[in-house]
Structures are given as C-alpha cells and as structure tokens.
Design goal:
- With about 290 residues, the chain is of the alpha/beta class.
- It contains 10 helices and 9 strands.
- Helix 1 runs parallel beside helix 2, helix 5 packs parallel to helix 10 and helix 9 runs antiparallel to helix 10.
- The two termini are about 30 Å apart.
- The mean pLDDT is about 90.
Length: about 290
C-alpha cells in the first residue's frame, strides 16, 4: 500500500471519542479513493481513544497518530491536524461521523473551476446507524456577493456548519485556519465557511452523504435569564455581526450590515419553531466540534 505523498490529507481531531471512533476510522479507511493520509490528533483523551488509534495506525500505513500531552482545546486541535497535512487537498473529519464509500472520490470529481469547498449532503443520525433526516442541498455558487448573502441568510438548523467538513485546497484552508472571530465562541465553523466563500464557490454533490452524528438532547434546565437570552438569541448577536467583520469588501460589509435586522428576526422566528420541535423530540441538536 502507498505510504506517500498522498493527494488528500484527512485531519481527525479527537477527545474521548471511544464510543464511535472505531466506526468512524473504518468508514474513512474503506473509502473507494485510497490515495490519502489520515492524521489523528488525540487531545489527551482519558478513555480508550489511544489504544483504538494505535491499533488503526499499526494496521494501515496511511494513518499518522499524534497524542497531545495535555488537552489544548478543540480549535488548537483542528489547526494541528491541518498543519500536518501534506496533500494537495484537505478535509476535516469528526470522530463519530460516517461517510459514504464514494465520499472522497465524488468530492474530488466535483472540485473544479473556482471551487473553495467541494461537498456532498448531510444525513443526520443518532446513536444508531439509520439516517433520520437529510438536509436540503448545500450549494453556494455564483457572484461573490450573492453567495455570501445566501450563506449569511441560510438557516443554521439546516446543516450550513457541516460544510467545514468538505474538501478544501490545503493551501487555501491553511491560509484561513480554524479561528475564533471577534471573540465569538459560537459558530466558528460557519464563519470559516463564510471566509472560504469569499474565495470561491461551494459545489455540492447530493448523491453522496456525510452521516452526521448528533445527540437527541432533552430540553435543558435554564435560569430565567438564560431562557430569556436563548429566546431572544442574545448570545447570537455577536455571531451575526461577525460576518460583517469577516467580509473583506466594503460593498459586502454594507449589504450584510443592512441585512442584520432581517437575519435576526428570521432567526428568532425559526428558533422558536425549532425549539418547539426539539421539545417534542422531532429534531436533533447540532453537535459542536470536538
């Protein structure tokens, strides 16, 4: 089996991923496109993550395993695996997701022209394997301002954060990095996707699926203040405003700023609707990066 250099680098940051890690590793290593390296960074896990990763490294020369001596946090770990990448293309992988066998092959075929991210589609799965809901197609092409506005206004409940797990040119995503914008601790993944959109299109092939593992969380107990903040999306205001700071062109900044009230009101209405669905057990919550 080839030992390098590889066309694609896959970065898998993990912390205490034991329950689903073996399934994720098997899913990646079973890809029909085999010319890739898998870079795993274990953020000082305290469960069986280390032994699972070492076993995987011993049986497949494409796997490189790093164990951090202390937990450096998820943003640092996402950047670490990216900095180790040697392939022309790069993708992040979550330790509990599953991928169609043709995922990488399809994304490579779809990568052309002014593509910034090549993606497929998302099927949400719970603790058990069967897909429960497939997101609408995530495709953002066309003039720069048009694709930026469409992404900004897109509903956060319909998978737009998952585009971070698409296929990138390594030099492009390395230049952007996994960052926290404006001190905003929510939505870093979506901000990075938005930054990518400033450089090119997002092209999606709905025929292949990323099976995204999310938890069905029961409604959380909140203080009255916390409930008010959640109801009126007060913790999201900085997240929305950060888009105007990330935009590089004056016209883009002005249009996004003008759309902030529209985004806030629409998000508030949708948030109330999805909160009701979640309470009724009809919706999965999005899982933050690990």
């Amino acid at each position: 089996m080839k030992t390098g250099p590889f066309v694609v680098s896959i970065g898998l940051p993990v912390y205490n991923g034991e329950p689903f890690l073996a399934q994720a590793l098997d899913s990646l290593l079973a890809q029909s496109f085999e010319d890739f390296e898998l870079i795993i960074s274990d953020n000082a896990s305290t469960d069986r993550t280390r032994s699972l990763c070492e076993s995987c490294q011993n049986r497949d020369p494409r796997v490189r395993y790093f164990r951090q001596p202390v937990n450096m946090g998820p943003v640092w770990n996402f950047n670490f695996v990216m900095r180790q990448a040697a392939g022309k293309y790069f993708m992040w992988a979550a330790h509990d997701d599953l991928w169609d066998r043709e995922w990488i092959a399809s994304l490579l075929r779809n990568f052309g022209g002014r593509t910034a991210i090549s993606f497929g589609n998302v099927a949400l799965i719970g603790a058990e394997r069967p897909g429960t809901r497939i997101h609408r197609e995530l495709d953002f092409r066309g003039p720069r301002l048009s694709r930026l506005v469409r992404y900004f206004l897109a509903d956060e409940h319909h998978g737009k954060a998952n585009l971070i797990y698409g296929l990138h040119l390594t030099e492009t995503i390395r230049d952007i990095g996994f960052a926290t914008y404006n001190g905003c601790n929510f939505g870093q993944d979506m901000h990075i996707v938005f930054d990518c959109l400033q450089r090119g299109d997002i092209r999606a092939d709905p025929a292949v699926l990323l099976h995204k593992r999310v938890a069905t969380n029961a409604p959380r107990a909140r203080t009255i203040g916390g409930a008010v903040r959640a109801l009126f999306l007060l913790d999201r205001i900085r997240y929305y405003f950060s888009y105007t700071l990330i935009a590089r062109h004056g016209v883009d900044k002005a249009v996004l700023a003008a759309l902030l009230p529209v985004k806030y009101i629409a998000a508030g209405v949708l948030n109330a609707y999805y909160a009701l669905q979640l309470r009724l057990g009809l919706l999965f919550e999005r899982k933050p990066p690990s």
